[in-house]
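Notes from the 1:1 (GR / supervisor)

We went over the backlog. Supervisor wanted to see one worked example end to end before approving the batch request, so GR pasted a single chain during the call. The sequence is below; no edits were made to it. Supervisor asked that the structure be written out right there so they could see what the output format looks like.
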Amino acid sequence: MRVIKLNFKRPSPEMLSSVSPQRSPRKKLYTFAGKTMSLTQWAKETGINAPTLWERITQNGWPLERALTEPVMNAIQRADRRRNQRLIRRMSTAFRQSVEA
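Structure output shown during the call:
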């Protein structure tokens, strides 16, 4: 077996301080209420998780205003919503069947 040694030198504090942190050019900026920020910054500002905001905007197609202002449902609210959706589905199926008969 051959061992390969890599020569890695830790950067000095001077070297680290000379590098200015730059925002990634790939980050998309969103403007709402006169403020322009990345999704991560909006998450910190609103208290809504960044993945939740991303999902609301990209996957669910919500407008930015709704994604940033609508509160996140807790577990009980999600369970209630699922139960109500099932109930509505059953009621609409029963109604359609009664209309067809």
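Supervisor's comment: Helices lie at 13-18, 39-46, 50-59, 64-69, 75-100.
Batch request approved.
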